[in-house]
Amino acid sequence: MYNPKIEYQPQEEIKRFQEQKLNEMLNYLSNFSPFYKKLFLKEKIEIHKIKTLEDLQHIPITTKEDLQQFNEEFYCVDKSKFVDYITTSGTLAEPTTFALTDADLERLAYNEAISFTCAKGSAGDIYQLMTTIDKRFMAGLAYFLGIRKMGASIIRVGNGMPELQWDTILRMKPNAIICVPSFIPKIIKYAEENGIDYKNSSVKRAICIGENIKNDDFSLNLLGKKIHEKWDIELYSTYASTEMSTTFCECEAQQGGHHHPELIICELLDEHNQPVDKNSYGELTITTLGVEGMPLLRFKTGDICRFYHEPCACGRTSMRISPILGRKNQMIKFKGTTLYPSSLFDVLDNIDYVENYVIEISSTDMGTDNIAIFIGCKNPGEKLIKELKDRFRAKLRVAPNIQFKDIDEITKIQFPENRRKAIKFIDKRG
Known about the structure:
430 residues; alpha/beta; 6-stranded mixed β-sheet; 21 strands; globular
């Protein structure tokens, strides 16, 4: 199953390899998946006729709604074989349960090990994990398993708590951190306020998860620049999801997240579920390879991106993925301008006096989108509102409605009970 050298092979060989794995996957689903058995029967799909990656277009897509409605019908093994249960974070919908076998955990470890290796990781490294490993969260567990498989060490500090983060860095001297990038300015600020010489600390690399730090041309976005201007460490962008059980991670060339062909088949589809033109944006649609418990076939992720097929300077020839432009369901039409939440995040994350915020999208009586941003800061006032609107106009050409709220009030909105990821975007459109 595992063949890390496939990433360096000619693209024709990669395609043949994936088509062989696809054939194995289809046979597995037709034998063991209640959901896909029904789908193949209903759609009169003869899997022996699906021979190429292009033939996948003859199979209907799988959606998040399918996973929610028929969750356990995706189970391909008896429940007694499951050793771990994961739930999605429910960013756009109700959480979905994913059940993993021992083989799936081994696959997850392999995925993260080769991803960390891609980002200059090696045995002997010490990683500080600044995200949770509990609360049915896949990512934290995956990082732990992958780092151990790579032969490196890990310090499980968890999220938040800048004081504890720095105490750990100064005591145990990790050379890399794994964190949500918007947390890095907070630990920089704590270091500056408490006389910590962070620029000469042991930390040399940051594996950035959950948020973009790059523009489409791979240059640093506002958040990435904010970090790098203060702290000259290497920043590696990643993209992953629970449904994929696969990570796309940048290499040293920093030109997009590398595809692991032995783990996943990727398509880019338009709103009609047709392949987009080469170099065009589309919705990432994935087929998992080598998953035992809950494999997925042509699953639409909701994430908008594009692919790069040119060989990378690192020697890998497999496809690379761009930074995620946004989620299909989150596209905003505001005053004639098309926006994604990430562009609003970029502006707000680069303003020091903004302690926290929540963006709320609603529909007007005219059927257009309205943006309201609720901001927590220590010294609110009309002068700051004008300054904030000027910043939005300079970057996005439009200025949303801005209101100040108590910092603690926004924190409660961001982190309701049992929520592990901060809610920064609320969509109230019908």
